[in-house]
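Retro notes
What went well: the complex prediction finally ran end to end.
Inputs used:
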Amino acid sequence: MELNNLTISKLRQKLADGELTSVELTRACLERIAATNGKVNSFITVCEKAALAAAEAADQRIAAGDAAPLTGIPLAVKDIFNTLDVRTTCGSKILDNYVSPYDATVIAKLREQGAVIVGKLNMDEFAMGSSNENSAAGPVLNPWDLQRVPGGSSGGSAAAITAGQVPATLGTDTGGSIRQPAAHCGVVGLKPTYGRVSRFGVIAYASSLDQVGPLAGNVEDCALLLGAVAGYDPADSTSVDTPVPDYLTTLKEGVKGKKIGLPKEYFIEGLDPDVKKSVAAAIATYQQLGAEIVEVSLPHTDYAVACYYLIATAEASSNLARYDGVRFGVRKDAGEGLIGMYRQTRAAGFGDEVKRRIMLGTYALSSGYYDAYYLKAQKVRTLIREDFFAAFEQVDLLLTPVAPTPAFKIGEKVNDPLQMYLSDIFTIPVNLAGTCGISLPCGMNHEGLPIGLQLLGKPFAEAEILQAAWAFENATDWGGKFPEL
Amino acid sequence: MKISREEVEHVARLARLALEPTELDELTGQLDAILGYVDKLNELDTEDVEPTAHAVPMENAFREDQVQASIGIERALQNAPSTAGSCYQVPKVIE
């Protein structure tokens, strides 16, 4: 069975018509994973038995006429989500043997719908990275070109869709970790507004920035999956109690009369010529579709990467203090007392990038440097937020590239952390502002690598960016392309 | 230099990381470069700007203080490297 061109809505129809059972579909996914995972390394854990059991239960539910939108649909999730009785490593050696004793809220929501969770996806360790090279399970390779990175940190979540292993996945986005891999792998990925989706049970990186979101082969599936996981959760006190709209009912309303802003700071020198060309063509498409294009300014854009790497690492240094070899995870103890055990456990369990960020964050929060670094960054964050709110007074949404270049080569940036950080320049600001963004395919470069288009929306305007993304997807041929593997 | 090797060593102690001498050398150079870069924030006058701690401004989230189901001792201990009865066990703290 070819899974690539089967959207969730088509699969639902086939399941409802009895043309296909969830067990058959799940088996097809498992076979595809077995055949391709050696090439792309997108899965860390495959849950074959549990998936087939869930598929059987889903078939019974469908037969009983009790199907929810995701009943019987195979999905996979980033290895950052606690998943009951499943190994959950977060891409780290320190959680090598950790088996979740509970479900994250988003996992529970998928299970309630009867979705079939086939496995856990590879990622940069603790979601820290832009290339998926920082995983204890080894790098994920981009299915479009196995010499290249899939993006990160949700690299497995994007590559699994491109490789035709599952139709949709969940990832997390702290500074672009859904949108950037979606762009590099030629799929659709959405970072919701902060507070839209529960973070309960999601292993924390930078708590004021982390947000869970869907990735899928097309905009409609992305909308469907967002609707399934969004909503207030009493277990996450930062989730926001506003109703979740039905993203599908408004999806096809078009962009006629919408004002789309082009932030001039995002169209800079050094932007890859193919990216520039594809985004320019996308702008022309929106004009043809009846949108009004306006230039706007987000004057503090140039400070976002510096601001992010102080705030995110400060929060990370605090969040990752919990990995101390006491309650869970791997312990290294050379008999040098409790503190010695902490130090050895953490030295052996964390990879280089995680250590680097813990060090930077610890420094930024340490006595004598707090005001100069952390507090300063929080103040700059205010300026960046205000830029977005001022722009959203003039326009309905913003249009930008996702990344300055298409997927880079494996190893190209590993020895230069700063260059790696700068590859997130267009995705980071919206995390600092807390609003929403979507990445969707808008072209191919001269080497056949996908290029991503980013649409940014007002707080809780996910329906609006999905609408604009759907309009583009349906007006062009860039969506739904998959490589031979 | 924005940061010295001695400071990096101090930060590693605060962060409870036992780092090898080669790691300390490498981190000193890398952190120095990153701190040099983030210095650009000082181009901005933020004297009268309020800091943002959170994307969504919110007050404390309170709920009723009610007894609810919890994960239970067995589940809570299932991943512990070392346990004693219903407790986590750690290396001796006091000599």
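What we learned: The mean pLDDT of chain B is 93.
What to try next: split runs per interface for comparison.
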